[in-house]
Amino acid sequence: MDLSNKVAVVTGSGQGLGLAYAKDLVRHGAAVVINDVNQATADAAVAEITAAGGRAVAVVAPVGSTETAQKLVAGAVDAFGRLDVMVTNAGILRDKVLWKMTDDDFDAVITVHLRGTFTCVREAVLKFREQGDGGRIICIGSPAGQRGNFGQTNYSGAKSGIVGMVRTWAMELQRAGITANAVCPVAATAMTETVPFLAPYIEGMKNGEPLPDIIRREVGLGTPEDAAGIISFLASDAAAEITGQAFAVGGDRLALWSHPDLTAVEYHDGGWSADDIAAQWAGTFGDAVQSVGEEFPEELMAK
User: Where's the Ketoreductase domain (predicted)?
Assistant: First the structure.
């Protein structure tokens, strides 16, 4: 997997999953722009990469605005002469149940995740089209955006919107040779430490204990490094024909999320009244109703 001719921006890459993505891209030869809101964190990430012989520079700015998106693309071009890959990973959490979530809680998460993805991808695509030789858009989604998650109205909405944008971009950008895909990772990070039944396993991992198979396989949770290979693959020439997809990755598991599709269809001449729907519901639609939220093995939830 040779990425030595590639230049990538990875937003939110000072630590955690973003840093794992950046380091894996560098390990395969790419040059990277590290992004974080903290100068010391960004500088430490760059120092770690360059000390190992990699190429990296830092752009310190909060993702969301067009100005930051322009700084990120300019940072890649100024340092390395071009841009080939945009990985939109930056994110924050403001978890609260709906009736306690404030406008600020909602807007902050939407700004970083959804608007930040839009502005960074738009700026990258402008550069890709100017260069004329394609490009790679890799947007970070979440299982919460695919299935919903308690207390995450803002986060689930943003992550769902990201996958919807990716499907649209895959159509709009295909003729320019630009692919757009989403990756929905699950990894032991500060975000997943707050999940009660996962906390003991993550704490054990910090103490050098291996994660059991039920966590790495059925839950699909592992280290940030476990989720990084799919990023380098999608950035490579080997993925030139893959676009508009949403990947699930974590631990020992790699999977594709399905696109939303019709699960039950019935027709009624002249359209459907409320009484018509009530009469037909159990026979056609009742058994086709789908669950919400992530589903985990029962033996984990019983602990």
Answer: 6-194
Distance of CA 135 to CAs 36, 74, 125, 128, Å? 23, 16, 8, 6
Distances (CA, A) of 119 to 111, 183, 191: 10, 18, 24
Active site residues: 142, 155, 159
Residue 281 lies in a domain: no
Task: State the CATH number of the domain containing residue 63.
Answer: 3.40.50.720
Average pLDDT on 111-127 reads 98
Domain count, the chain: 1
Any bridge partners for residue 178, and if so which? Answer: 135
Q: Residue 26 in contact with residue 230, Cβ under 8 Å?
A: no
Task: Count Cβ atoms below 10 Å from residue 230 Cβ, excluding itself.
Answer: 21
Q: What are the phi and psi torsion angles at 241 (to 5°)?
A: -100, 5
Does residue 71 form part of some domain? yes
pLDDT tens for 134-145 read 999 999 999 999
Strand order in the sheet with 178-185: 55-60, 31-36, 7-10, 85-88, 135-140, 178-185, 246-250, 253-256
Answer whether 0.90 is exceeded by the pTM: yes
Q: Tell me which residue range forms the domain holding 131.
A: 7-187+223-256
